[in-house]
Each structure stands twice: as C-alpha cells, then as structure tokens.
Design brief:
The structure is a single chain. By secondary structure, the protein is mainly α. The chain contains 5 helices and no strands. Helix 3 crosses helix 4. The mean pLDDT is about 80.
C-alpha cells in the first residue's frame, strides 16, 4: 500500500502523460514548409490555405510559424 495521498499519486500519473517542452517547440535550424504553417494554424491542407501559407512565409519567414506555436 502506498503512503502517498491519492491526489499526489494521481498528479504524478498525470505528469507522466504531459508532453515535454522540447517536443512542443520547433528548432531554430529547420525551415518550415507551407504545409507546416497550415497544420500549425489548425487549417485543412487545401490549395487555398497552402497559397496563404506560402505568402505568409515569404513575408514573415520562420516567425510566421513561431506565432502559431505555444
């Protein structure tokens, strides 16, 4: 039988399912694609959204993707 209160055990189990920050953020060395930007924005991949993403990346560069991520 565990000596930890039930709430502590539940919190520890929940913490193990949390995605680490290193997996949530993109690295500075990769070049985002239009597809990356569309998906990060929560939109569907369509010719229209891909064109939007290409224009946005051309103007804003990598920061366009960074603005979409936590």
């Amino acid at each position: 039988m565990s000596e930890e209160p039930e709430s502590v055990s539940a919190a520890m189990a929940e913490a193990r399912r949390v995605t680490p920050d290193r997996l949530l953020h993109t690295g500075a060395s990769d070049r985002p694609s239009a597809e990356d930007l569309v998906l990060a924005s929560g939109r569907d991949l369509t010719p229209r959204t891909l064109e939007w993403a290409r224009r946005k990346l051309a103007v804003e560069g990598r920061s366009a993707l960074d603005k979409q991520l936590p």
